[in-house]
Amino acid sequence: MGEQVRTVDVQELISYGDDLLKLLKSRKDIDGLMQSIEGVKSLVSSCNTDYSKIQNLVEESQKQIEACTQEMTKARDESDLESFQRDLEDERQKEKELLQELR
Asked: Compositionally biased, Basic and acidic residues: which spans (predicted)?
């Protein structure tokens, strides 16, 4: 009977050893998972930083485009005004010439 108790104790010990091995293996898995999570956090942080930089560059580019568009519009308007002034001056000159011919 002493041997049976010893056998049961050995079975319990083997079971305990198996559970301990599973825990240790799980612990390795948990450590690996934690490292992966830290890597993901680092990657997300890096991506957020890059996104912010790119967003700022896009906003700056949009402002520059808007400024260029305004300058082009202003230059076109000034060009049109100068053209109208030249046309007006040409018409006045023609009018003067016609008036001189009529006299």
From this structure: 73-103
